[in-house]
Write a structure and sequence with these properties.
Layout lengths: L1 E5 L3 H11 L4 E5 L3 H8 L10 H10 L3 E4 L2 H5 L4 E4 L14 H11 L7 E4 L7 H13 L5 E3 L9 H6 L3 E5 L3 H18 L2 E5 L1 H32 L3 H9 L20 H14 L5 H13 L2 H9 L8 E5 L14 H11 L3 E5 L4 H8 L4 E3 L11 E4 L4 H4 L3 H7 L4 E4 L6 H6 L3 E3 L10 H13 L2
Parallel strand pairs: 1-2, 1-4, 2-3, 4-5, 5-6, 7-8, 9-10, 9-12, 10-11, 12-13, 13-14
Helix pairs in contact: 1-3, 5-6, 9-11, 9-12, 11-12
Bound molecules: nicotinamide-adenine-dinucleotide (NAD).
Nicotinamide-adenine-dinucleotide (NAD) binds next to helix 1 and helix 5.
Length: about 450
């Protein structure tokens, strides 16, 4: 089938690339000329594991193209996906101007058999709104379907190839049939469920899914903070609750708060939608507020540890992306942390396997950047881990201790081996776990001994 994808970001690029290796002829469109020029030369605008190989496969089989010309890409497409951003506006709601501009760019040119499909996360009722917009522009009706995307950055390819389910929001059998044909290869290879519903329910499904996952994270974070205050250990408690099959382990890992381009904005967008119908959303407000508080938990621990103040201290930060496997720093907890450290007068030295350049755009010469994680530790008074990249999990406590001025570690993801750091005489702080305090005299003499050893 001929497919056009408008918006070549995390969702549009991955979606287009996946369809192209399933035998569809895909053209991805973006208004960002540099992005399209780079993609045509094989340069990716984002980091996503395995995406490069998928794009190369699509390009080699002549099934994947990139352009800035929406009209040329859309005029003979059977399916036109709208996959542009819907960022938060000043009221907390979803901005629909990009989506409307994308719909306008294809409204007149789309052929009468085409199906327009919204993949962006959009408030309930947006399908109708875009149908009206297109109808006004072209002078006749064109059905708009909804097909929310559930991929996770960092595992997007696997999520798309092996989805838990595909949700279709359609108003007609014809639209359902088009989308069934489009997804036929994926349904055959993955065996996943296809759920067909009204567009309004499909739009709502995406928000409810994200709000529920955000709630799980905020819940376990709040319980972790309580454990700390009451003298329990959240990791022990987790093993006690997550083994209950009704609860499970997913999204119940305490940490420095959730970030990214979806959970924060989607929780707020649903709050906004509820407000419009005069509904009380105390629970949704609490999820958001708990997360905003959680993003300050690590910096508060650092401030307490250095009770004399952070002026003149140098702090290393490992992990800038909002989660491992991506270069995305939108609403990343590391931003909150670095802002606080700079405000308190600390020097900040950072490392991330993929997100350094995005941080450089944000902070310029105000912080120090390192491509080698151990080099980032030199002369530092503490290490703070903010993203649980696999390469940090394997880090050696003794080696880290040798590079730091003082063996102090803040594990903002509860992902390092506490006992190894205890043995290496670290002051080890985590989220909701009993703190391991080293013996300072022993720690320093051990460190001097290690440094003296050739
Ligand atoms: N990122 C995720 O993990 C994820 C997962 C599921 C759903 N979503 C949703 O999918 C949507 C897209 O998210 P994203 O992260 O891919 O966004 P993104 O910001 O990475 O990409 C959006 C792209 O759209 C382009 N664009 C904007 N206006 C355009 C227009 N008129 N014509 C052509 N291109 C245009 C931008 O230049 C940009 O490249 C959002 O609604 C988001 O909530 C995102």
């Amino acid at each position: 089938m001929k497919v056009c994808v408008i918006g070549t970001g995390y969702v549009g690029l991955v979606t287009g690339a996946i369809f192209s290796i399933q035998g569809h002829k895909v053209t991805c469109v973006d208004i960002d000329r540099q992005k399209i020029a780079n993609l045509r030369q094989g340069l990716l605008p984002i980091y996503e594991p395995c995406l490069e190989e998928i794009i190369q496969t699509g390009r080699r089989s002549d099934c994947l193209d990139f352009t800035t010309n929406a009209a040329a890409a859309a005029h003979d497409a059977e399916v036109i996906f709208l996959a542009v951003g819907t960022p938060q506006d000043e009221t907390g709601g979803a901005t629909l101007t990009y989506l409307e501009a994308a719909a306008e760019s294809i409204a007149r040119i789309a052929n009468e058999e085409a199906l327009v499909v919204i993949k962006s996360t959009v408030p309930v009722g947006t399908n109708r709104r875009i149908e009206h917009l297109i109808e006004n522009k072209r002078g006749c009706y064109l059905e708009v379907a909804n097909n929310p995307e559930f991929l996770k950055e960092g595992t997007a390819i696997d999520d798309c190839l092996r989805p838990d389910r595909i949700v279709l929001g359609v108003r007609s059998d014809r639209a359902e049939d088009i989308l069934r044909r489009l997804y036929a290869p994926l349904l055959a290879s993955s065996g996943c469920e296809l759920l067909v519903m009204e567009p309004e329910s499909a739009e709502m499904t995406k928000y409810v899914a994200n709000c529920f996952l955000a709630m799980k994270i905020s819940f376990i974070n709040e319980m972790a903070n309580l454990c700390e205050g009451l003298g329990a250990d959240i990791e022990e408690v987790r093993s006690g609750i997550c083994t209950d099959r009704r609860i499970g382990w997913e999204f119940l890992k305490p940490g420095a708060g959730y970030g990214g381009s979806c959970f924060p904005k989607d929780v707020r967008a649903l709050i906004r939608q509820a407000k419009k119908i005069g509904s009380d959303t105390g629970l949704l407000h609490t999820i958001d507020e708990a997360n905003l508080r959680q993003k300050t938990v690590v910096s508060a621990k650092i401030h307490r540890h250095f009770s004399g103040g952070l002026d003149g201290k140098k702090i290393a930060v490992w992990g800038l992306a909002f989660k491992p496997g991506t270069d995305d720093i939108r609403e990343a907890p590391a931003i909150e942390l670095v802002d606080s450290l700079l405000k308190w007068g600390a020097t900040v030295s950072v490392h991330d396997p993929q997100a350094i350049e995005h941080f450089r755009t944000l902070y310029g010469s105000r912080i120090q950047y390192h491509y080698d994680k151990l080099a980032a530790l030199e002369g530092c008074d503490a290490l703070v881990l903010m993203t649980d990249w696999p390469e940090y999990l394997a880090a050696d406590a003794q080696q880290i201790g040798l590079h730091l001025n003082t063996p102090v570690l803040f594990d903002g993801r509860n992902c390092l081996d506490r006992s190894a750091f205890a043995q290496a005489n670290f002051d080890y702080y985590s989220i909701g776990q009993r703190q391991i305090q080293s013996n300072p005299v022993w720690a320093n003499s051990n460190r001097n001994l290690a440094l003296a050893t050739p």
